[in-house]
Amino acid sequence: MMRKVISGLFLGLALFVNPVFAQEQQTTSFTGPGISVQIGSANDEPTKLSQTIQIMLLLTVLSLAPSFAIMTTSFTRILIVLGFLRKALGTQSAPPSQVLTGLSIFLTAFIMMPVWQEINENAIQPYQAETINAEQAWEAGVLPLRMFMARQVGEQEYALFSELSGAPPEKLENAPLSVLVPSFVISELKTSFKLGFLIYLPFLLIDLVTATILMSLGMMMLPPMTVALPVKILFFVLADGWTVLIRGLVASFMR
Fold first, then answer.
1. Of 3, 99, 146, 184, which residue is the least packed, with the fewest Cβ within 10 Å?
2. What is the rounded CA–CA span in Å between residue 161 and residue 197?
């Protein structure tokens, strides 16, 4: 049965491809319920060929859009800091990764909302109203995002990628995206690790105190983590840790 199905598929593929190669200028059409496919030569209609290329480029951009959105917004710093918090608490999978990712997405939307509103007002709406062309819309849309990244980029990171690119360093506001984006990503990683170190310190102190007390009591067989975990959770809750952490994260982007 499977052999018959495969043979039928190859036969259908041969019938589908054969007319195209038989006559170079011939157009072959296939019509089904709700589907219409037309295959033919595009030599006489270069506009259709350019539209096909535009569609391919659009699909490529859409496939890269999530990575671009992650690397040019506050998402990276927030997610890494929340990951450090979970490691410092020692709660293994609490909160779950899905919760941390969802929280990072909503915090990113909250932080980036003014930037996105400015892009919508200065680029998207005028372009839809046909008051500016695509090139002007791109320049107006990139400017707010460029200003946001420029405020977070460190001088050392920017100098590094300017040197690697071989171009003389310019003002961050005028830096090309090929230099500004990697500088922003490295700066975000550097800042998030600094914040993670500050988060680790109080919980590390609790671990040391707990281990010292257990050793002094001769309870060497009892893992210090078993006693330190509820103490760290209690300390985090009493200190209103989530509010303090979120406030600090949002404030770190307001410089």
1. 3
2. 26
Alpha carbon distance 120, 103 (integer Å): 24
- What is the signed CA dihedral for 246, 76, 198, 113, rounded to 10 degrees? -30
The encoded tokens of residue 29 equal: 């059409």
CA distances from 7 to 3, 13, 14, 18, 217 (A): 6, 10, 11, 16, 78
Residue 222 CB contacts under 8 Å (≥ 6 apart), including other chains: 214
Is the CB of residue 228 less than 8 Å from the CB of residue 90?
A: yes
Provide the token pair at 200: 């680790």
What token pair was written down for 157? Answer: 């990171």
DSSP character for 35?
A: E
- pTM for the complete prediction? 0.71
At 22-68, the pLDDT tens digits run 344 444 444 445 445 454 544 455 444 467 777 777 777 677 777 78
DSSP state of 169: P
Count Cα atoms within 13 angstroms, Cβ side, for 252. 21
Q: Which two tokens stand for residue 53?
A: 């290329």
3-state SS, residue 155: helix
